[in-house]
Amino acid sequence: MTALHSFATSRESILPIWSTTAQSRRSQPDATVSELFVLLHGMLLTNIDLDDFAPTLSRFLERLEIEGAEERQWIMMAVTNIGALLEYGRPGRVLRRAGGAGTRDATSIIPFRVFRKRNVPAQPEEKRMDVDDDAAKPDTSQTQTLPVLSDGPLSIKLSQAFKYAIQLSVSMLSLVLRNPTRKSSPFAESTLNPYLTFLTTVSKHAETLAILERFIPWEDLAVFSPRHL
């Protein structure tokens, strides 16, 4: 899902992780924090079952608040959420077009449109995993109109999956800002949750911050800052 040096089929090579059977197992009532987190990212990566994203996110946040997670899990989740905001390396990702990740594309000043692919024959999986929309030939007769974010540096249309990636990342940040310290054991000293570095990372580029600023939980951040910084 995140790689320093990606290759042409890097995303496709991990799709078995989100097979129909595996995703069904992770959606069970007794699913753990890690299982629900992987389930959510499977929805974002494959664009399958996005209608179930909101209730699944609520379940995940509730379980995360009750059970917590280990330090390495928090770090892993922060890195993976950043990968989701980068849309797992898709060529036409929003932050690259805005110039917030890598070199700004020449077409970044032009609002882009998101297309749905033509109907194709059924695949072995029960549902087709739509991972490489950017590489598909667009069907202009089936253009999908998406909401426009017009108060950033550019007028950029955000896909539903990208907005859900923001919601996942920021909801976790809000939870951590309200409970910023954690203990590795009852006898250890309290330390700041490493997920807090997520905000530092995404705010390094002005273009990225301009897109995400409306979603950042500023009230939680204002309460957190005087007490912990």
Automatic annotation (TrEMBL):
Residues 124-137 have a biased composition (Basic and acidic residues). InterPro entries: TPR-like_helical_dom_sf. Residues 123-146 are annotated as: Disordered. This is Uncharacterized protein. It comes from Boletus edulis BED1.
